[in-house]
């Protein structure tokens, strides 16, 4: 039987509203196609790296400790089965963090259709990579449309329906409310061996607040961290932008203890401003502006002059607005 899979982002212990919207669309499509609707989420496991012999197991109860609220919401949203993938990697909306666990879900279910909420935190990172990895069509702005055979169709003319061959991945916007189900749902727990890509090292992700998925950050480079004027202007710039000032432990006298990062800390803010020679790991959707170094191919712009002069000028101009 064909499978429709919906990726679920969590907001605390509840499914993200955008993910529930995708689940509603998935319920309509799965019912029309005669398919099973799976809701899948990834959770952090502290039990160590699972063995290869424990790749998948069906839970003996209908609940995973700590996820009862999410399970009930997904059951009422229409999910036939809830799949929980356990990973030892940090939970962040980045392929480097959860990609291996998500790939394990895809390999286990081999879905015909994969849905993401268009505004869900993981959608922009995971959805196109999912389509590329399974060789599926990618529908960037999809909505479920009615009829005898409900289909997903986007504004660019792409569509997915039961009579078509091949897989599809879709970002779902608004959807009609799904029929409310009961709170009883089958649960599958996947323990994914090698929860992270062994070629990728993720460090410096504690505390979690530095793994921004929105807003702005100001990054202080080690080469300028000991300059008192630059440090003062960096604090002012962060305050003017409502951003967090971050840096390595070389900038311990400037940034707060909870804002230490290194070059492998995964960051995904809307805007990152670097001061000096700061090396950071940014998601591709981040707008990057450099102060004190050339923009290069990876940045959207640069402030001319030295780090001290450029930063001082930028702070002055912003302060006059």
Can you describe what's shown?
With 321 residues, the protein is α/β, with parallel strands linked by helices. It has helices at residues 17-33, 68-76, 95-109, 123-134, 228-241, 307-320; strands spanning 3-7, 10-11, 14-15, 36-44, 57-58, 81-87, 113-117, 137-145, 151-154, 159-160, 168-172, 186-191, 216-220, 244-247, 266-267, 271-275, 281-282, 287-291, 301-303. It folds into two domains: 3-191, Rossmann fold (3-Layer(aba) Sandwich), CATH 3.40.50; 208-320, 3-Layer(aba) Sandwich (Rossmann fold). The chain has six helices and 19 strands. The radius of gyration is 22 Å and the shape is elongated. The relative contact order is 0.14.
Anisotropy-based shape: elongated
Content of β-strand: 25-35%
CATH architecture of the largest domain: 3-Layer(aba) Sandwich
- CATH topology of the largest domain, by name, is Rossmann fold
Overall mean pLDDT score?
Answer: 76
The named CATH superfamily of the largest domain? HUPs
- String of helices and strands: EEEHEEHEHEHEEEEEEHEEEEEEH
Q: Tally of extended strands? A: 19
Q: Could you say which structural class the secondary elements and strand pairing correspond to? A: alpha/beta
Task: Please work out how many helical segments DSSP would assign.
Answer: 6
Low-confidence stretches: 50-63, 194-210
Distance between the termini: 60 Å
Spatial order of strands in the largest sheet: 5-12-6-4-1-7-11-8-9-10
For the record, what CATH class of the largest domain applies?
A: Alpha Beta
What's the number of structural domains? 2
